[in-house]
Amino acid sequence: MAASCRLKPLSCVAVSGGTHGNEMSGIFLAKHWLRNPMELRRGSFAVTPFLGNPRAIEKCVRYVGRDLNRTFTTEFLSSTEAEDEPYEVVRAREINQTYGPKGSAQAFDFMFDLHNTTANMGACLIVDSEESLLPMHMCHYIQTHYTRSPCPIYLYKLPGEETYSINSVAKAGLTLELGPQPQQVVRADLFTQMRDLMACALDFIELFNKGTVFPAFEIEAYKITGRMDYPRYSDGEISAMVHPKLQDKDFLPLNPGDPIFQTFSGEEILYEGNTTIYPAFINEAAYYEKKVAFAKMEKHMFSIPGLQRE
Amino acid sequence: MAASCRLKPLSCVAVSGGTHGNEMSGIFLAKHWLRNPMELRRGSFAVTPFLGNPRAIEKCVRYVGRDLNRTFTTEFLSSTEAEDEPYEVVRAREINQTYGPKGSAQAFDFMFDLHNTTANMGACLIVDSEESLLPMHMCHYIQTHYTRSPCPIYLYKLPGEETYSINSVAKAGLTLELGPQPQQVVRADLFTQMRDLMACALDFIELFNKGTVFPAFEIEAYKITGRMDYPRYSDGEISAMVHPKLQDKDFLPLNPGDPIFQTFSGEEILYEGNTTIYPAFINEAAYYEKKVAFAKMEKHMFSIPGLQRE
């Protein structure tokens, strides 16, 4: 990678709340911004807020037909209308039409996506990979300027995997994943935290647009390597819970031999991997059906080149 | 009230898990007991475990058609089959047939009901009223013998209100309401706590059945006096969140003038009542649709007469 990169200023920026219809911080923030759009304006740009999945929001469920945030792949975006297709496929095409098309020159410059998790992940910043220069600089700026809590960086893209998330339709994106918060609940502390993180991110864009030079840096981030399912009975029902010693320990080291599950009868199940990992999304409500008890993460240091506008 | 009462020994005892299909401690406990029934046996009796709302459990939602735990009133229990009636009305009649009929001599002697809340209510014991002698003795026994955490007593019946809960079909009942736990999540710590509380309650029944004399006592309990809705916009949408100073403060005193809500723009809304109350079910996920931000409780001391078996 070059020691420094130049990118165009960001003029078209959007933020989605309610990509999942029961994650309330972003839903109430987006609704608040739709009533009070001034809060999303800066000198050089303004952010367009929108509700990701309005039908799911109305029912206060994660999704109606299928997970919207797994629907932004070529397969779904290029599909033709069909009568029995899930609502989210229709909605993904709409969003791609409005803020994309994905991969095109017309696509929005940047999209924020606001989420909550039941896991104890704090103020987590999710980026597709460390190669996304502008988002990595944004994370660095947030970590430096938002000092009320740590903001771990989660790199979600597995090698060779196609991007599938809502903000992959824009040229770049950042997902805020705040927790722990139960589904269908809005906590004032997390609402305020999400709003402050957004304000900090917009300050970064404003500085970038106005020509600030951001030097190269080294940064720690967690990169996904795989996922761990729950132990299950032969009928598919889970047979064990996340171990109390692992519960709430997102982004802390898990070593070979450490307990990870406890069966309903009380037996411990130990981690059999060969290396230390850093679990995240531990005991996330929505991931039972995805067969994910936690995401397996490695901790790395990355060298990020400098950045300034063209 | 008499200074001491004699009641028949308890032979028919049941426990429902999954009366709400997304409250996971009771669901996984009931399923565990259905696989391992010995855990619910004592010398003088055995408990029958069952799944309260199987269809809701399968979908991992609170209910399919209407809240099952508000369906055990004369209106629903005496209704005749209709094609368009909600599933839970059918299910309530089934449960009433099996474990009741409500108010009859054939009804089960006792029913436990296992719940979770997203509110910070700890190991809460819910009884209809302080006049329910055997459940109050059971609560007293649990408070004395289960010492890992406080077990506040919540008296749920408003004056003049008909009982509507699932365990009202039995002659007496106790509801365990453990939190905080997100919907659709099972935490090992709360699972173990619920199992231990049940074991303690069964020990009490065994002692009672075997002739132990339980003397009169004084006990503190929280009695509901009403419910507080969220502030709302004219379109019905909520316009404020539970205030961060009230969040997680279940069963702690709330005084006139204390903040209770924070609008999405950041203004405080203060409590305008005349007396100190003790809120509970603060920010419970399932109560947004019931228009309840918290239950208003009074704290009282009650004198409970002695108890022994006939």
Task: Give a nutshell description of this structure.
The structure is a homodimer of 310-residue chains. By secondary structure, chain A is an alpha/beta fold.
How does this structure look, described?
The structure is a homodimer of 310-residue chains. Chain A has 6 helices and 13 strands. The first copy, chain A, is of the alpha/beta class. The first copy, chain A, has a single domain, classed as Aminopeptidase, CATH 3.40.630. In chain A, the strands form 3 sheets. Chain A has an 8-stranded mixed beta sheet with strand order 3-2-4-7-5-6-8-12. In chain A, strands 9-10-11 form a 3-stranded antiparallel beta sheet, with no helix packed on it. In chain A, α5 (133-145) links the parallel β5 (122-127) and β6 (153-155). The longest helix of chain A has 22 residues, at 188-209. The first copy, chain A, is globular. The mean pLDDT of chain A is 97. Chains A, B: The active site is at 177 (proton donor/acceptor). Chains A, B: Keywords: Cell membrane, Cytoplasm, Hydrolase, Membrane, Metal-binding, Zinc.
Features:
Aste_AspA_hybrid_dom (chains A, B); about 25% strand; membrane (chains A, B); zinc (chains A, B); about 300 residues; aminoacylase activity (chains A, B); eight-stranded mixed sheet; homodimer; alpha/beta; three-stranded antiparallel sheet; about 25% helix; Aminopeptidase; 6 helices; metal ion binding (chains A, B)
